[in-house]
Write a structure and sequence with these properties.
alpha+beta, outer membrane lipoprotein receptor (LolB), chain A, 15-stranded mixed β-sheet, 6 helices, about 15% helix, elongated
Amino acid sequence: MTRSRPICILHAAFCIAWVAFSAACGARRVPFPSDPGSPLPNYADLHAEVTAACRGARTLTAELGLRGRVGSRRISGRLVSGFETPAKMRLEAVAPFGPPGFILAARGDQAVLLLPRDERVVKGQSAEAILGALTGVALAPADLQAILTGCVLPASTATGGRLHSNGWASIDLDGGATMYLQRMGTWRVRAARRDGWEVDYPQWQGQFPQALRLRSASEPANVDLTATLAQIEVNRDLDPTAFTVDVPASASPLSIEELRDAGPLGERP
């Protein structure tokens, strides 16, 4: 039987693990090239070059420091993340003390979200649906991994390219996405547009981004988050149990509608 007490997702997952803060978003927006540019003959080779590392990332683990705005709320906190292609993911919101704010694990089309402090669980939904209800970031595991590693899309083909002023280039990808590169000694992915999202990559460390900014492209822009990546490990063998959640027998079910209503984009204050 579902508990009658009100769910306290904002207490468990946001007010503790994603602590509210009053400072403005930190990262400055990367300016997209504004000139029409000229044809880039070697766009396919360039795309293959700048995405070689992220396309080869079979697994990824990283600690994500988050801050920004979701809906009308400003949030900040830390997530421990793990990914394995093609569609496995684990996100754990680290609290300053006690149990995690939430644990989200996904394998294929099915995901489980556990709120340990509330003893509530969401089952039978996709990771994309749960992430959208919980954070406003409705992305599947493969899409989130691609954005975090700088590939922008999980699998893409370059369809065209333009060379712009000030050392910039743009590469069009199938599906309507565009990747913006800047020559910084070598070419780096600096920004991108894809289905409803804009991404900035202001910092790189080696072959992978050290920071990124994710914004919803539609108006009003409900999501504006900056993530810093630390302790990045790629192609490390991960225990299959990492993508499961040990749900206690005492946990009661939570619907995706309740989760959405209690999340940062919901109407509940």
